[in-house]
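Minutes, project check-in
Item: structure for the 315-residue chain
Input as provided by the requester:
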Amino acid sequence: MVLLTPRGFCAGVVRAIEAVRIALKVFGPPVYVRREIVHNRFVVEHLRSAGAVFVDEIDAVGDGERVIFSAHGVAPEVRRQAEARGMKIIDATCPLVTKVHLEATRFASMGFTILLIGHRDHDEVIGTMGVAPENTIIVEALDDAEKVQVPDPARVCYLTQTTLSLDETAGIIARLRERFPAIQGPAAHDICYATQNRQEAVKAAAHSCDLLLVVGSRNSSNSKRLVEVAERLGMKAYLVDCAAEVDPAWLEGINRVAVTAGASAPENLVAELVGHLMDLGFEHMEELRLKQEDVKFTLPPELVEISNCHESTVP
C-alpha cells in the first residue's frame, strides 16, 4: 500500500472549517452557513452537530442573523442581499477563489468576454459567474471550446475553476488560444496549489500501483478529478467517502493500492481506510511524498481579532 502525500485538507479548507468553529465557540449556536462550508459530508455533519445550521440560500436565514459564506464563494448579489437584511457576514471564501473573482471583476471592467472554464453546477462556478454574468460564458469541455462564440475576439479572456484537472484544462486553454489568438488569461493559473499537488502525486504513483482509492465526497470536484487523472493513466480508481464503502471485489488481483484524499477530506477518514486495507491483507505501507505543503491563510477578517483571544485547533 502506498500513501500519497500531499493529500487531504488544503489551507482554504482549514480556514473555512476554523471559521465555523470559532464562530460557534465565540457567538454560540446557531451560526448559519450558506451551502456546505466545504464539500465533505463528514465535515458538514460534524459541524452541524456542534450547532452550525446549513442552508441552501440566505432566504432561510432571519434578518440580522450571523451567516458564513462557504469556501466556494458567493456571487456579489448574495452579499448585497445579506447586507441589506442586516446580516452579520463572515466570509470564508478561499483566497484563491477570491483571486478569480477579482480577475473577473477586472476583465469585466475592461469590457472583455470572460470564458469561465469549469462545471456550471458547481458552487464555485456559480459564484464566479455571478461576478459578471453579462460578460461570462461557461466552457465546460473541449467541445464547448470548439463552439463558443464571442462578440469581439480581440477582447476575450479565460478564467478557470480552481479544482479542475490540470491536463484537461490545459487542452481547453490550448484550443481557445488557437481560436482566439488575442485571448488573455490570469497572471498565474487559477487551479489551486493543492489541486495540482494531489494530481501530481497520483501521476507519480501511477507507474507502480494497480488501484487508487480516493477519500472524498461525491460533490467534491477536486476529489473526482483525482479519480479521472488515475483512470487516464490506466489505473483503476474509486472515490469513497469512508472505508465502509470499499468493495472487496475491487481489491481482487491487486498487488499495490495507492491511497489519497481530496482537499476537503479529513485525515481521520484516511487513517480508517488505511487500517481497513491492512485488515484486508495490505499490511505493508509506504509513503510517496511529492512535496511538503506549508501554505497557510489568515482567518476571515471578521474573525482575526476574535481568534487572538480564543484558542482553536483543527485536528
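Outcome recorded: The CA atoms of residues 267 and 315 lie 8 Å apart.
No further action items on this chain.
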